[in-house]
Design goal:
By secondary structure, this protein is mainly alpha-helical. The chain is built from 24 helices and seven strands. Helices cover about 70% and strands about 5% of the residues.
């Protein structure tokens, strides 16, 4: 199973991989089609002014469908079969591009461009609403990263490909008259072919088929009522409302940079070359932000990260407006785009994860439509505002300051971005921990934000069911006590009176417990466990050896139950007051081997499917990969004494006071898992195998 932030790993999911292939061809076709149609519009026009009007007309008709059909497209994606919708839209786009090449008429070019963009407007929400159904929620961010990088990253690829086609067309034109009078036809036909390939790929995706259902499980019957429900949902839901406000503010700021890149470059003495660099820097930063930001801050609250990225992007844009040097401005523009990229991918992920399936298409369509209208208005208004201000110089306290329209407008856009970011942050903040402490903890890969001082040492054994944790707990405890170390042995769940009752409920195979209730019950057990047993022992300077701790919740309820890992981590941090193990020993074993070792009737968690236990295993391994300094990963199929030796070697580095005599000690031949009665526990065992999931 792929890691949560592993882009290549997400492509191992067959259904998503095929959808990504379709997206790649569709996005490439969109950009290539834009270049080809604008070039053809110029070719079909007369004077230089007419060519500019024709190119502007193509852009206008491509923005116009968002005003007319945006809400309808979202309701359509929520009401009808998404696979059939996407295939139909791809076929329509293919035929329209062929017709443009066939007719060579400027009015038809405008009409066909309008229809192509309309089809795209229906294709996009169907695709976006389908992604959360193809990947696990914890992998949704990686899937969105890949999708957005592909969408925007295909733009320069299409530009280079278009340039190559243009040169190839010129070479053919020297001998074939057709290519002299039809210079863009080759690009248009290839563009049409990309949509045909996309349609054929999506046609094989049965996973996104089926008619959408409403919240009560019935099919939508009135498409206009569906549109109204979508708008009401966005307006009345604080999280979604905050996301939409933030996304619009972020895109307004980015559109302002794009619209004013040319005059701002002129002010800095860069001309057309500087304009190209500034324009490219925005998209470079956008891609870097999408790729790097979520990986760098993988443990940080996504709701906080969204608002924080907007605020930082606004600050960066305001500073950009004040920079006097083109080179510095270009480099700084990458930072502006980077914050926008972080906000965009995080916003998309939150929308996909928090909005229910029957409303997801309408929500994405509304966001897409508003973004397009937002960008159109800003791109149109920003140059007018900048031109109205003009170029001025102001003397303040003997300093001659530049006060040109481009800089003033960019600075105002930066301030707007800051305000929007603060509004979004306040509506979506899901933590009661100070922001700076939460951010530092995430940057430092700390699983907790408030780990109180302690004198003792906490060692935790983790792993799937049947990994042999109880055996290794007993061996390590005996070894430590022989060397004079005061040691407390405990486990989760069930180490306290309260925990024993929680454990009996959680492992009862006849009990029906929802995933969220299960996670909260484990957190309650853990809070009591830490307060009554672990923390007092650590304060006394003792070594605490625990069979399971926080990481079992992240693996069992996070990876196994597919609950949000960030939420589970926050609950556990609060329950434990930030207590982090000094060492976590992961006994790694396949589910088949581990479950085969248990001779008792399986408990509620052990009785789960093999796929569930595989997800749990990969969840543990993913946690270990993220924090190798705290983890010791051991192959649990090795001999018992070999495993014990590896654990002791690591413990000796952790506890220098231990003598080195243990290195030469011979281990007695040991049976399998011992009888629970022989394992010293703080409270009597319910079963020898803790059953996982805590």
């Amino acid at each position: 199973m792929p890691a949560a932030h592993d882009l290549r790993g997400v492509l191992q999911i067959r259904a998503f991989r095929r959808l990504w292939i379709a997206l790649s061809f569709s996005s490439f076709g969109d950009w290539l089609g834009l270049l080809a149609t604008t070039a053809l519009a110029a070719h079909l026009s007369g004077s230089f002014a007419q060519q500019n009007f024709a190119i502007g007309g193509v852009f206008f008709v491509r923005f116009l469908p968002a005003l007319v059909f945006g809400p309808l497209a979202g309701a359509f994606a929520d009401r009808f079969d998404r696979r059939k919708t996407m295939v139909t839209c791809d076929v329509i786009r293919c035929l329209l591009l062929v017709s443009i090449a066939a007719f060579h008429s400027l009015p038809w070019l405008f009409a066909a461009s309008f229809l192509i963009e309309t089809a795209s407007l229906f294709w996009i929400p169907s695709k976006e609403a389908s992604v959360p159904n193809l990947v696990e929620r914890r992998r949704l961010e990686a899937a969105n990263q890949l999708s957005l990088i592909t969408t925007y990253g295909s733009a320069p690829v299409a530009a280079v490909f278009f340039a190559i086609l243009a040169k190839f067309n010129d070479a053919l034109a020297s001998g074939i008259h057709f290519f002299t009078t039809n210079p863009t036809d080759l690009a248009l036909y290839l563009d049409a072919a990309t949509f045909l390939v996309s349609a054929l790929t999506v046609a094989t995706l049965s996973e996104i088929s089926g008619r959408r259902l409403s919240a009560d499980g019935t099919a939508e019957t009135n498409i206009f009522r569906a549109i109204g429900e979508g708008w009401h949902f966005v307006a009345s839901t604080p999280l979604v409302r905050g996301l939409v406000i933030g996304i619009l503010g972020g895109f307004a700021a980015s559109a302002c940079v794009i619209a004013l890149a040319r005059p701002f470059s002129q002010v800095l003495g860069g001309g057309d070359a500087g304009y190209g660099l500034l324009f490219g820097a925005v998209f470079t930063g956008l891609a870097l932000g999408m790729f790097v930001g979520p990986r760098l801050l993988r443990d940080f609250s996504r709701m906080r990260l969204f608002g924080l990225a907007l605020v930082c992007g606004g600050i960066a844009l305001a500073i950009l407006a004040l920079l006097p040097n083109l080179v510095i401005a270009v480099l700084w523009t990458v930072l502006v785009g980077g914050f926008a990229g972080i906000a965009w991918v995080v916003g998309y992920t939150l929308l996909g994860g928090e909005v229910e399936d029957h409303l997801r298409g309408r929500t994405f369509a509304l966001v897409q439509s508003l973004v397009r209208v937002d960008m159109l208005l800003v791109i149109a208004a920003a140059p007018l505002i900048s031109g109205g201000i003009g170029v001025r110089r102001v003397d303040i306290a003997g300093y001659n300051l530049r006060l040109d329209g481009a800089s003033v407008t960019l600075f105002a856009a930066g301030l707007l971005g800051i305000v929007v970011g603060i509004v979004s942050y306040r509506q979506m903040d899901d933590r009661d921990v100070p922001l700076w402490r939460d951010l530092l903890a995430s940057l430092g890969r700390l699983p907790a934000v408030t780990d109180l001082p302690r004198r003792g040492t906490l060692v935790v054994f983790e792993g799937g069911d049947g990994a042999g944790k109880s055996t290794q707990v007993r061996l390590l405890t005996d070894w430590l006590r022989e060397r004079g170390m005061s040691t407390v042995v405990t486990r989760e769940p069930g180490a306290t009176d309260l925990g024993a009752r929680v454990r009996a409920l959680l492992l009862d195979p006849t009990a029906s417990v929802s995933p969220r209730s299960e996670a909260l019950l484990y957190a309650a057990d853990r809070a009591d466990h830490v307060a009554r047993i672990i923390r007092p022992a650590l304060d006394r300077g003792e070594v605490v050896v625990s069979d399971r701790y926080i990481d079992s919740t992240l693996a069992y309820q996070g990876a196994g139950r597919d609950l949000p890992v960030d939420d589970l981590a926050r609950i556990s941090r609060w329950a434990t007051d930030g207590l982090v193990p000094d060492l976590t020993v992961l006994l790694d074993v396949s589910p088949e081997t581990g479950l085969g070792r248990s001779g008792d009737a399986p408990d509620r968690l052990e009785a789960e499917s093999t796929e569930f236990h595989e997800r749990v295993r990969h969840g543990f391994r993913e946690l270990a990969e993220r924090d190798p300094n705290r983890y010791l990963v051991v192959d649990a199929t090795l001999a018992v004494d070999v495993i014990a030796g590896q654990v002791r070697a690591r413990i000796e580095k952790l506890l220098p006071a231990l003598t080195k005599a243990a290195e030469t000690e011979e281990l007695a031949t040991l049976p399998g898992d011992p009888d629970p009665a022989t394992v010293p526990m703080v409270e009597p065992s319910v079963r020898s195998n803790p059953g996982g999931g805590s």
